[in-house]
Structure formats: structure tokens, C-alpha cells
Amino acid sequence: MFLFRYAASVGYIGSAGALTVALDTIRESHILDGYDFNFIIRYDNCVEKNAVADAIDMVMNYNADAFIGPTCNAPAIATGVISSVYNLPHYVWGFTTANELANAPRFPTVIIMTPNYFSLALLSVMGHFGWTEFAFIYSGAEDAERCPVYLTDLQKAVFDQPSFTLSFNAMWRNNTDQDMNLILSELKDKARIVVLCSSSAAIKRKLLLLAHDLDMTTDEYVYILSDLGASGYIGGTSSKTNQTAYVWEDQSTPADGRDKDAYSVFKRTLALSDVADDSHTSAAYTEFADRVQQKMRLPPFLCSSECDKANGWKIALFANQLHDAFLMYATVANRTLTAGHSYRDGTYMFNHTAGVYQGYF
């Protein structure tokens, strides 16, 4: 299941080719020799009822052997129940960070490709430093599948670990100086450890500079930058130099001239991320992106001008998870058949998935 929404992260054009990249590895490794694969593609667009309808249709009318997707939390939870009813192997990826998906008694066939313990990782970091009280802030412009879900999981984790206190949480509505300063002013009297959830390097930089101007980046404060898919302190590729841009570097035109201030502020932060700083700028990542693009131009996808880099094509942020999900499914299905079980036995496959796999990253 794919989305037209959130194309930069999980969109069909930027990620579907990862399936046939994985298929090449499956064939080269002689996994499931003698078996053919048919891909049934649906677009749930992160709408729960669409995903449920698609899942039922694929089971009843196409006799699907496994699900890969959806990529959003509510649809993944709903279809996870369906795959459990039919005992089909199910792999979710993308934005599926909800801790509930790790409830094995409820979802005995669902394998999660996305890190879904951010909240516990955050509390572990704070426990290491002896911090117990903190704030959580984010922008209203953030996707509903990212920071709001993270906050919900974090609140549950704090409830389960009463030694921690979430003393303040807030969302600013618009990314204006006025709205962001209002949140910072409210925060100032309530916390010194601040978790900032943002997928935008520009917003991180802006908020921390505003905090600096309010004298909120002294030794009293610690800012923890945390969000799914954020590459640490890498802000992407500079449109000016075509080189790696760091989060403290202003990418706007004209620049505000405050990179030195921003750098001094970011030195007082911690970054909690599921992605290594250099993973999206590595040679392996570039090779993977090129292979995904090439596969999109070939059957069964036959993507034309939309898949040209000259027309703005980019690999989807979580395409590697799709690749790894299919490769993992084929590997475990092969192992399951060897053991004399059905490749449609999702519970058996779930219980025999643990192991080490060679994914793309």
C-alpha cells in the first residue's frame, strides 16, 4: 500500500522500485527459487477505511499471501487486525511508529520495519544523565503521523515510568516568531530539558535562535532534537553549493548572517535519531537511489518523465525500509518452507523472524 500524500517520505514514485531492487537480491541469493512474485499495489493515502477496504479486497479477491504496508499508524493498526485474523505475514514501514503495533498478542503477524521505541530511547537518554523532568514542543505544521504520535507514545511511557515527569507540552500553530516566542516564554518557567520534535532543519534553527535571543540557551538548558528520519545534524544538500548542509547553516536567500550564533546554540543540543548523520550522503545511499530510479523506469512500473532526476525525482526517505521488508519476507518465507510450514502462516513467520539481515543500510 502506497500514498500520494507524503510523497517525499513514502510515495510510490520514490519508493516502489525498491521492491524490484530487493527482488534482484532474492534471485541472486537463490531465495525462493521456483517461485514468482506478483505485486498488488493500492493507495490508501493514510486513510484508515481505505486501507481496511484494500486489505479485505486483497484477501478476498486476490488471495494475497502477505501485506507490505500501510505506512501510517491508524491504517497499519486497523489492517494489522485483519492480517492477524487471516494469519498472513504483514510488514509495516514508513511512519508506523506507534508502540501499539509492538503488542504481539494483538498483532501476532505484524513485523515493524520502523523504529517504534523513540519514547523509551528518549527516557533512557534522560535517565543516563539523571534528568527526570522535561518539556516536549513541536510545530503545528508537522505531519500528524510524526510528532503527535511520538507525543502520545511518550505520555504512555512516562505513565509507565513515574520517575519521569512531562512538565510541559505544546504545539505552536504557525512558524512565526510571535507564535514560537509565545511557546518559549511559557516553557521558560516550566522546564530546562526540552525535547524539540521537528522534521525541518530550518525550523530547528529558527526556534533555537529565538531561544538564544530569550537567553534560553545557557548552561541551564538542554535541547534534545528528536524525530523519525532526521539525519542528526545534517540538514540536507545545499541548493547553493550542492554539498552537505548542516542544520545551523541558513539556506534562505538572503541569509540572515547568524550561522555563528546558530552553531554555538547547536553545540548545546543532543540529537536522537534513527538515521546516522552520513547515511543519506553515502556512496551506498546514492547507489541505492540510482537503482530504485532505474527500476521505476522498467516493468512493472514503467514510470516515464516523472522518474527523471531532471524533473525533480528523488528517492523516498523510507524506501530502504520497503526494500528490507520484502527481502526479509522472502528470506523468512524460504526458511518457513524449508521447515515444512506454509509461507502464509504469519504467526509462525513472526515467531521465526528474529535474526540478522543484510539490509541496505
Which key phrases capture this entry?
361 residues; Rossmann fold; 5-stranded parallel sheet; 13 helices; ANF_receptor domain-containing protein; ANP_Clearance_Receptor; transmembrane helix; Peripla_BP_I; membrane
How do the strands and helices of this protein lay out in sequence?
Layout: H1 7-10, H2 12-15, H3 17-28, H4 48-62, E1 67-68, H5 73-86, E2 90-92, E3 110-112, H6 118-129, E4 133-139, H7 147-160, E5 165-172, H8 177-187, E6 193-197, H9 201-213, E7 222-226, E8 234-237, E9 244-246, H10 259-266, E10 269-272, H11 283-296, H12 319-338, H13 346-351
Parallel strand pairs: 1-2, 2-3, 4-5, 4-6, 6-7, 7-10
Antiparallel strand pairs: 8-9
Helix pairs in contact: 3-11, 3-12, 4-5, 6-7, 8-9, 9-10
Describe the protein's architecture and organization.
The protein has 361 residues and is of the alpha/beta class. It has 2 domains: 179 residues, Response regulator (Rossmann fold); 155 residues, Rossmann fold (3-Layer(aba) Sandwich), CATH 3.40.50. It contains 13 helices and 10 strands. It has a 5-stranded parallel sheet, sandwiched between helices. The mean pLDDT is 90. InterPro entries: ANF_lig-bd_rcpt, ANP_Clearance_Receptor, Peripla_BP_I. One of its GO terms (molecular function) is signaling receptor activity.
